[in-house]
Amino acid sequence: MKDSKIFLQIPAQKCFLSAIGQFAKGLFASFEELEDEEQLRYDLELIVSEACTNVVRHAYPSQNIPGTLQLRIFYDQKKIQIEIVDFGPGFDPEEIEDPNFEEPKEGGMGLFIIKQLSDKIEYQTLENSNILRLEKKI
Prior knowledge:
It is built from 3 helices and 5 strands, in the order βααββαββ. It has helices at residues 17-29, 38-59, 110-117, and strands at residues 4-11, 68-75, 79-86, 120-125, 130-137. It has a 5-stranded antiparallel beta sheet with strand order 1-2-3-5-4, with helices on one face.
């Protein structure tokens, strides 16, 4: 795998979430280094799906106001870095509590799953955008 960058920009709407999932599945399946790494490919797909779902649900909660989501993927022989960019109001990931497994409820697992599956996670709020940066070692 040669050092590369992939950018995808789509409307941040529920109807596009399955397309994002299929894009991630096809993309990671095409990486030769991941050919025999089924669990790693699945983890990457899940990270992308959960992060994009969170953007649709939380950055743009009103589907009446369309927003934009950018997916940026940078990769080399050692790691894959995923950036999810939105232009909604930001949040502090440290304020989001881990789910209570003794009293489970529907939803609220996305960020927890992302944290569990990522080797590195950063969140940055800029003047006009928010960037969730995730890294997974190959």
